[in-house]
Amino acid sequence: MPLQKLQFRPGLNREGTDYSNEGGWYDGDKVRFRSGFPEKIGGWTQVSNNQFNGVCRSLWVWLNADAGAGNTYIGLGTSNKYYIYSGGVYNDITPIVQTDTLTNPFTTNYGGNAYTVLVTDASYNPSAGDYVTFSGGSAVGGVTISGDYKVTSVVSATTYTITITSPATSATGGGTVTAAYEYPSGLDVYSIGTGWGAGPWSRGTWGSSYDAGIGEQLRLWSNDNFGADLVIAPRGGPIFYWQDSGGVGTRAQYLKNLANTTTLLTDATTFSSGSTSIAVTSANAPYVYPYSYITGSGIPAGTYVLSINNVTGAATINNTTTGASSGNYSFSYSGAFVPSQTYQVITSAIQEFVIAFGANSYVPGTPNSTFNPLLVRWSDQANAYQWVPEVTNQSGEFTLTNGSYIMGARATRQEILVWTDSAIYSMQYIGAPYVWGFQILMDNISIMSPNSMITINNVTYWMGKDRFYMYSGRVEVLPCALRQYIFDDINTDQAYQVFAGANEAFNEVWWYYVSKSSNGTAVDKYVIYNYLDRVWYYGTMGRTAWTQTGTQPYPIAADYNGRLLYHENGTDDNSTTATLPIYSYVQSSDFDIGDGHNFGFVWRILPDVNFNGSTTNQPSVTMTVKPRENSGTPYGTADSPQVQSSQNYTTLPQYTIQEFTGQVYTRLRGRQMAFRIESSGTGVAWQLGSPRIDIRPDGRR
């Protein structure tokens, strides 16, 4: 009987049994399909030997063109910190919510543990897991406590403990210490909220407002930037603005000013540039004057703050004392009515708006109004500070009507796509007076998580709760040969951990998820859609965030060890200092002779494989033919011959032709069989072609 070519349909198919998918591939891990043929995926290396703190949930890469030739920054939002990565260093820009001056606050050797320190005299009450930075103190118990520390437990409203790395003798002291409390740490895993406006990875209970003392936020970056700076926000928390002008070590600041204590003057008081016609002497609280009350040439649009100190009679404008309560003043805007709560914030890069999805509405005199999970609210054009709607600016808001809450939004080339839990909207700039127009693209759809959507080549893909979707001008359901297999395996209790990533060099969309089979809460699997070949494949891998940009040579992912990794770089797992092999394989569905009327006897395999990209000397793969008697019975004894290169691949690219084992001899018998190729060595890259087997009929029993 002539040789039988083993050439299978590209992609993995798990919608039926392995025999019903005859002629296709059924199982695999860490392989992809290119031009219809399987190959091992690329390896990964560390972006930096340094590590970040917490579980990274979002990444954003941008170029600061103001710095001459340009500096590339990577923004990281983790469960504990905000970072800006630059020059091999993770710069901590986590906002400081309060700074205290403490006197002799440290008691070392607390509770008999030489590594635990009791901190007293605190007016701010952090939660366990939050971070505080101490500075300016003196030694206590033989140790100077200075730097960033994690709160290990809370003893009372004014007392908490931290852990130090050096043993200390029992003592109390520390002198005059400055304690800077960072924005509260969030959860490492998905946790359902308790009502309207809370939501997963959010804050508070039904109807509650943001409280900087509640450490329940899991930070999510906006995945967008504003000029050379970065607009960031935790899901369900306030908006921050990191200003690059201060350097990468600069802390992020609230994009608001005294929003919890301001009151709005309702009389038509008129100010001229550089002077005032009214003396305010009745309250300590700052008074906020909308732009319509400010007159004069050359005054920019904005919200202006004037604060009066009754005790001294001095006026404070933007925290700067300038003189008596009446006289000349230099006004500047501060953004007092920036939303104090939001699910997500992005920028419209072309129109230059900062947009909050899910926010508290603008109510004059009430900066912290009720949170609305369906409200879209935006700043003035090219002015991230101005959020007060007026006839002289383009600030505004709009409430969506379909759904219960906004899941997320993504800016595309011509529009902004907005997902609620049951619909998708198109948001387009139409200019004044309405500014933004909204159109429902499709109702009765679903979406798995806030990070499960990705736009590639102006086509947007996302994972729903039981299917995959795409939008290219119209919404379509993606046919998926792995639909049942993937959605039956997803741990829906950890659905919000699903995130999407692009690997454009290979025309791929990746979705990472937590599997039921893992019996845990860590992301451990992925599924890939190749949008060029329109095929699917899957595998196992633990990652927490992914991004790809033209400013970086490779896609970047975050792992559970506090490291950023360059993917498709090399052939091995270099996520640590040790080089580890990447085990990859792909296995076909069962095939037979005819319809399996006779047993088949295989005595020879003629491989067709190359090792382009390998870095080891004479790389190898194992090809296996697995026989069984009938569908449903276990596989019998398989022959697993090794196919090895006869060239020295350490001298790449000096080889001229592909040379490998020409043929391998086997001895196996079965009514139906499966073919498998795998590798487990370091430095190995392989691409399968069309191997052939020498098979002949061998009886019916």
List the helices and strands and how they pair.
Blueprint: E1 4-5, E2 9-12, E3 24-29, E4 31-34, E5 37-40, E6 44-46, E7 56-64, E8 71-78, E9 82-86, E10 89-92, E11 96-103, E12 106-108, E13 116-119, E14 131-135, E15 147-156, E16 159-163, E17 171-173, E18 176-182, E19 219-220, E20 230-234, E21 240-242, E22 253-254, E23 263-264, E24 287-289, E25 304-308, E26 314-317, E27 320-324, E28 342-348, E29 353-360, E30 371-378, E31 396-399, E32 406-411, E33 416-420, E34 423-431, E35 435-443, E36 453-456, E37 459-463, E38 468-471, E39 475-478, H1 483-487, E40 499-503, E41 508-513, E42 525-530, E43 535-540, E44 545-547, E45 556-558, E46 564-567, E47 573-574, E48 584-588, E49 600-606, E50 609-610, E51 620-628, E52 642-644, E53 664-670, E54 672-679, E55 687-688, E56 692-697
Parallel strand pairs: 2-3, 6-47, 23-24
Antiparallel strand pairs: 1-56, 3-48, 4-5, 6-46, 7-8, 8-9, 9-10, 11-18, 12-13, 12-17, 13-16, 14-15, 14-18, 15-16, 19-20, 20-21, 21-22, 24-25, 25-26, 26-27, 28-29, 29-30, 30-31, 32-33, 33-34, 34-35, 36-37, 37-38, 38-39, 40-41, 41-42, 42-43, 44-45, 45-46, 48-54, 49-53, 49-56, 50-55, 51-52, 51-54
